[in-house]
Write a structure and sequence with these properties.
The chain is of the alpha/beta class. It is about 40% helix and about 10% strand. The C terminus is likely disordered.
Length: about 575
């Protein structure tokens, strides 16, 4: 049996979570955002949160307010987000309830969490990928537990989202690379209004059996002691053996799907009564009574929890609103590259093709920044990219910094959010622009919104290289142009160089930009073999060349007064 102090702490937090849920439901008209709560899921969430340490990383999902309470967040802090207040510690009033992010040094860190179910598995697996890389290459930059162990990542999601393709990509990569990550899957038998027999052939425990090297555990997530023991086994295994583990926890759904989708809309009374039998609160109360606590003591715990929650809610309602003038803040993080630098046409320079200018830029980056890594389809040492755009890099920098991935565009794109949060600087590649679309979900949902919805805490520093456009023999599925699609996405930057000099300067600036940058690299200009493209070959700029985003070079300057009068007022710039 667990120590009475742990059981009592869990009961206090569980009573707090229940009081919050009931208070929110009674004040639905006051709450700014649609919201979900952890009612029924409290035991497994508390059992998990109480065993994580500040050096760890976790990704809760929208029903995980008990997990947040267990890791040290207060009801008042959570309520500030529910009510969209200025001092909401997560998003400054920008995002839904229980969409956390945090850099608090006394709690596990949390990257941006979106509403898209299952999507967090890829960025969180990216965290585990980054932790593993830093263990080998930059160990001094990682924190430690109180016992001296390295950090782990934990990703929480519902069983209903395990059918998402992104979940499969994340599990595949974690199992392949043997990453230090715990996947906590909470299974309440429902996927909004769809029951399990309608949406899945098997639960996630059975599904995960296909991923070799992924340890699997399952438990009754409504029983706190059993849940604690299972999560202790999972976390200890992950922390010490440094390998992935998935926990499947069965739980009742005692609350609504959300405040807007009420349980009485789609669930029978019989189903509600069946789930109520597994309410974790009376189960834990029974355990505490058997341990020696009295009814009076436990009643007082519940009364005091409800009183604190009510006081916090009243205080949160009085908190300041976000100033309207800040609504556009943090769409982008400021970049350090604001002016052009270096020599564009050095005296001893040689003309190079665009593909070589890109290759040399990445090579110089990787020589200078040990935190830079390159991965994607076929970019490893064996081929160096299907266009030879990464040739020699794998051999020069090794397989831990330059490596192939599976055909997983979503993982290639979305994993960079986790790597960036750790301070790494990923350069990734999708092989053809035509095939970027499976990665757009991560680019739009996770990366482009991360800086804004974390109130500036987690901009995603990444460069996404995308060979684009027509070239000889490409055909309809290898010649696509996607710039118009990308330009509709707020929160990313797009570069589309037309010559080798610009390619190198923009690649360098893109790497240092703290925001997501898509580098469109035209395949027809890569080697200047297409008739009329020889001008894409330019003298190669020096190593210090950085070309900032925004200002354009002047090719033919005009005389403003004459232009305003509609006259031909230009001269050729040389």
């Amino acid at each position: 049996m667990l120590k009475p102090a742990i059981l009592l702490q869990a009961y206090e937090l569980m009573a707090t979570a229940r009081a919050m849920s009931e208070l929110y439901d009674a004040n639905k008209s006051v709450c700014r955002y649609v919201h979900s709560t952890s009612r029924g899921h409290e035991a497994i969430q508390l059992a998990t949160g109480l065993q994580l340490q500040p050096c760890d990383w976790m990704s809760p999902y929208y029903r995980d307010d008990s997990l947040l309470l267990a890791t040290g967040f207060t009801p008042y802090e959570l309520m500030l987000q529910l009510l969209a207040k200025r001092d909401d510690p997560f998003s400054g009033g920008r995002s839904y309830y229980c969409h956390p992010n945090s850099k608090d040094p006394d709690k596990p860190s949390i990257i941006h969490q979106s509403s898209a179910t299952g999507m967090q598995t890829i960025p969180t697996t990216g965290l585990a990928q980054g932790i593993q890389f830093m263990e080998k290459k930059l160990p001094d930059q990682l924190g430690r537990t109180t016992e001296g162990y390295l950090p782990i990542a934990l990703c929480s999601f519902g069983d209903g989202s395990a059918t998402e393709g992104e979940v499969s990509e994340a599990l595949q990569f974690a199992a392949l690379k043997q990453l230090p990550i715990v996947y906590l899957v909470q299974d309440n038998d429902w996927s909004i209004s769809a029951s399990v027999d309608e949406v899945r052939a098997m639960n996630v425990f059975d599904y995960a059996a296909g991923f070799k090297g992924l340890k699997r555990l399952q438990c009754n997530g409504s029983d706190f002691e059993q849940a604690y023991a299972t999560m202790q086994e999972a976390i200890t295994y992950c922390r010490t053996i440094r390998r992935p583990v998935l926990v499947h926890a069965t739980v009742p759904l005692l609350g609504h799907h959300t405040s807007g989708v009420r349980k009485e809309f789609y669930r029978s009374q019989e189903d509600l009564d069946l789930h109520a039998l597994n309410d974790p609160l009376p189960k834990l109360r029974k355990t505490l009574l058997a341990t020696g606590f009295t009814q009076v003591e436990l009643d007082l715990v519940e009364t005091e929890a409800a009183s604190r929650v009510a006081q916090d809610f009243e205080k949160a309602q009085q908190a300041d609103e976000p100033p309207p003038g800040t609504v556009a803040d943090h769409v982008f993080a400021p970049t350090s590259v604001k002016e052009e630098s270096g020599q564009r046409t050095p005296a001893n320079g040689e003309k190079v093709m665009m593909v070589d200018a890109a290759l040399h830029a990445v090579e110089e980056i990787m020589e200078t920044y040990p935190e830079a890594i390159l991965y994607g389809q076929d970019v490893g040492a064996r081929l160096g990219g299907v266009f030879r755009e990464a040739a020699t890099l794998g051999g020069k920098f090794g397989t831990e910094r330059v490596f192939n991935t599976a055909i997983q565009e979503a993982y290639i794109v979305g994993s960079t959010a986790g790597l960036s949060a750790l301070g790494l600087k990923p350069i990734v590649e999708v092989q053809f622009a035509d095939y970027i679309y499976p990665g757009l979900n991560q680019l739009v949902t996770e990366l482009s919104k991360s800086c804004y919805l974390t109130n500036g805490k987690f901009p995603v520093q990444m460069v996404l290289r995308v060979p684009t456009g027509a070239y000889g023999g490409g055909g309809p599925y290898h010649s696509g142009s996607i710039e118009s699609t990308l330009l509709s996405i707020k929160g990313i930057k797009v570069a589309y160089p037309s010559n080798a000099a610009d390619m190198k300067g923009l690649m360098k600036a893109a790497f240092l930009d703290p925001n997501p940058v898509v580098m469109l690299e035209h395949k027809g200009l890569y080697w200047s073999k297409v008739p009329g493209t020889d001008e894409a070959r330019k003298l190669e700029p020096d190593k210090e060349k950085f070309l900032p985003f925004g200002p354009a070079p002047t090719g033919i300057p005009g005389q403003i007064p004459k232009i305003q009068k509609g006259k031909k007022g230009f001269h050729i710039y040389e």
